Amino acid sequence: QLRLVESGGGLVQAGGSLRLSCVASGRILSSHAMGWFRQAPGKEREFVASINWNAGSAGYADSVKGRFTISRDHAKNTVYLQLNSLKPEDTAVYYCAKSRLYGTTWYRDTGDYDAWGQGTQVTVSS
User: Fold this and answer.
1) Coil vs helix vs strand at 115
2) What pLDDT digit, counting tens, does each position of 84-94 carry?
3) Tell me: the pLDDT tens digits for 44-93?
4) Distance separating alpha carbons of residues 6 and 31, to the nearest angstrom
5) For a designed S-S bond to 81, which of 20, 24, 113, 119 qualifies (C-beta 3.0 to 4.6 A apart)?
6) Backbone φ and ψ of 14, nearest 5°
């Protein structure tokens, strides 16, 4: 079974940076898109970024464009999210996920993903 394990979260001051990692273990398929989502207390889980299976394209939420970067390394079975210029409103639990479908595109809807990690906490102080 596929397992996704996030790491790299922590406490950082506003304007700082973090790099989140999502390592896939077990039986995996490399032809799926991967995504990052986040959820703050009392709020819905929201799309952050997604990258297609061959890393040829990626998409971002408007709130993080220019600040966050998603990437993947198939050899390491790992997806990354680089978070720069962090703001207090970025505080949330960050989740990585695998898409249900495979192909050449990426997805921004939670319903398009069928496997999720346990999340890693990112806290940005002001």
Assistant:
1) strand
2) 999 999 999 99
3) 999 999 999 888 899 999 999 999 999 999 888 899 999 999 999 999 99
4) 20
5) 20
6) -55, 135
